[in-house]
Each structure stands twice: as structure tokens, then as C-alpha cells.
Automatic annotation (TrEMBL):
PROSITE patterns: IMP_1, IMP_2. This is Inositol-1-monophosphatase. Belongs to the inositol monophosphatase superfamily. InterPro entries: IMPase (IPR033942), Inositol_monoP_metal-BS (IPR020583), Inositol_monophosphatase-like (IPR000760), Inositol_monophosphatase_CS (IPR020550). It comes from Planomonospora alba. Keywords: Hydrolase, Magnesium, Metal-binding. It catalyses: a myo-inositol phosphate + H2O = myo-inositol + phosphate.
Length: 266
């Protein structure tokens, strides 16, 4: 018997994502400071990345003390059938510069499946939500991604992971993709890119390097809006490659990217 409800998880996740967003807006200094760097000098962390994750973890623990949590800043804690997947600020570089495109992303996984997701794009006041089987929503409107778009007419969002060795290959892949699509958008937040896809603001998305917390919530928003998400050759999404688009365009994008071997390092 199932002892959880995706809609209840979503309500809690949304409440927490909104509270974290309010805290971040209230505490964001005019010029946030880089506290540390991670995989490369351009992969930055601010004090508020950590504060946001601490707040989110505290609220999850208050409400559901036995659940597991995977967060970008705090790693993996706990065990059990329910796991929360947290990106406390997705788009830290935008947050640093005051570019109004960063998000709090929280997903809930039950028995290994993502069942609820919220992406709070804080500076825009847009809160995207999805519960498995219940659709994707923004401000009371049900979302549908664009369908029937050919690759050469498609607006494609992408991102560039920070790990050393990746960027030169990403540039090569981009040089191959750009002349074959309508245009490229690099927003700076994978969670926001996937929500933009759900809302029909872009047609497709691909990226090499994204981690689970980058796409867990936004991926559910996109799939509940009719998109397909996955990796290469039927594999699940992974840092190797994550692709998202409506069926049809997904396959075209996949077939464009697959021969480029985006896994190799420069
Ligand atoms: C990053 C953003 C960016 C993507 C990177 C991510 P962060 O997350 O989602 O759009 O291109 O791959 O690492 O570090 O700002 O949470
Ligand atoms: Ca992220
Ligand atoms: Ca982050
Ligand atoms: Ca980060």
C-alpha cells in the first residue's frame, strides 16, 4: 500500500521553495561574494547557496524526519523510500551578477521515481510545479510544451557544465548544433531552461554535465507538460548528456548529438 501522496509532497515542496526564495531575496546583498570554488575556478558557491540549502533541509526534517535528502551543497543524507533532491540556488552565476534568472529547485522521489517537483524562479516570481500524473502548472495555468516543431525551426536551450575539460568539447558540439537549429539560448539555470520548455518558451534542451539536482524538478515539470527527457541511446539522463523536447524533436536532437560523442574530454 502506498503511504505517500505526490500532491502532498508537492504542497510541502512548494511551501519550502517559496520560503527559501523569500529568504534569498531578503538576504541577497547587492554584490554577493564568492565563498569558495568547486570543480573549477568558475564553479562558484556563495554563502546563500549554503544558507538556502540549510533552510530547506531544516524544513524537510521538521516535516518528514525520516526522509533522505540529496542536495548540491550538503550531499546525501539519510535513507528510506522517500528522497528529496535539492538545488538551493540553480543559476549561482546569475545570482552573483544579479541576472534575474536563478531558481530554488526541489524534487521528491518516492520508490526511485520523481513524483513531485517545484522550481521557484525567484527574481521573476514564477513558481512552476508538477506532480506525477497531475500535470505541470504555472500560476494556475496548465502547461503544454510545443509539439510538431522541426529541428531546423527549433529554439534550443543549453548550458555548459563547469568541470575542466568539458568546455572545449561543449563549444565544438555547439558549433555543430547552432547552424542546424533556429537559435540557441543559454539562460544559466538548467531548472529554468526545463520550465521554459514546459511553457513553450523554447522547444528543446540539451546539456552535458548536469547533475540530478539540476534537472530532477524541472524534468518532471517538462515531462508533465508533454516532453520527453532522457540521455543517449535510451539511457536515462546523466551528466553524459541530458536531452529534453517533445517526442519527434527529441529524437531529431538526439540523432544530431549522438555522433558527436559528447562524453569525451578535451
Ligand atoms: C548550473 C546551472 C547551469 C548549468 C550548469 C549547472 P548551479 O547549476 O544549472 O545552467 O549549465 O550545468 O551546474 O551550479 O548554478 O546550481
Ligand atoms: Ca544547479
Ligand atoms: Ca546550485
Ligand atoms: Ca553550483
Amino acid at each position: 500500500m502506498t503511504s505517500w501522496s505526490a500532491v502532498e509532497f508537492l504542497e510541502l515542496a512548494e511551501r519550502i521553495a517559496r520560503e527559501a526564495g523569500e529568504m534569498l531575496l531578503a538576504k541577497r546583498p547587492a554584490r554577493p561574494e564568492v565563498l569558495a570554488t568547486k570543480s573549477s575556478p568558475t564553479d562558484v558557491v556563495t554563502a546563500l547557496d549554503r544558507a538556502s540549502e540549510e533552510l530547506i533541509r531544516a524544513r524537510i526534517k521538521e516535516a518528514r524526519p525520516h526522509d533522505a535528502i540529496l542536495g548540491e551543497e550538503g550531499g546525501a543524507t539519510g535513507g528510506g523510500r522517500v528522497r528529496w533532491v535539492v538545488d538551493p540556488i540553480d543559476g549561482t552565476v546569475n545570482f552573483l551578477y544579479g541576472v534575474p534568472e536563478w531558481a530554488v529547485s526541489i524534487a521528491v522521489e518516492a520508490d526511485g521515481e520523481i513524483v513531485a517537483g517545484v522550481v521557484n524562479i525567484v527574481p521573476r516570481g514564477e513558481v512552476f510545479t508538477a506532480a506525477r500524473g497531475e500535470g505541470a502548472w504555472l500560476a494556475g495555468e496548465r502547461l503544454r510544451c510545443n509539439s510538431g516543431v522541426r529541428l531546423d525551426r527549433a529554439l534550443i536551450a543549453t548550458g555548459f557544465g563547469y568541470e575542466p575539460g568539458r568546455r572545449a568539447v561543449q563549444a565544438e558540439v555547439l558549433a555543430h548544433v547552432l547552424p542546424r537549429v533556429r537559435d540557441i539560448r543559454r539562460g544559466g539555470s538548467a531548472a529554468s531552461d526545463l520550465c521554459a520548455l514546459a511553457a513553450g518558451r523554447v522547444d528543446g534542451y540539451y546539456e552535458r554535465g548536469p547533475q540530478y539536482w539540476d534537472w530532477a524538478a524541472g524534468g518532471l515539470v517538462a515531462t508533465e507538460a508533454g516532453a520527453r527527457i532522457g540521455g543517449l541511446h535510451g539511457r536515462p539522463c546523466s551528466p553524459e548528456l541530458t536531452i529534453c523536447a517533445a517526442p519527434g524533436l527529441f529524437e531529431e536532437l538526439h540523432d544530431l548529438l549522438a555522433p558527436l560523442d559528447p562524453e569525451r574530454d578535451a
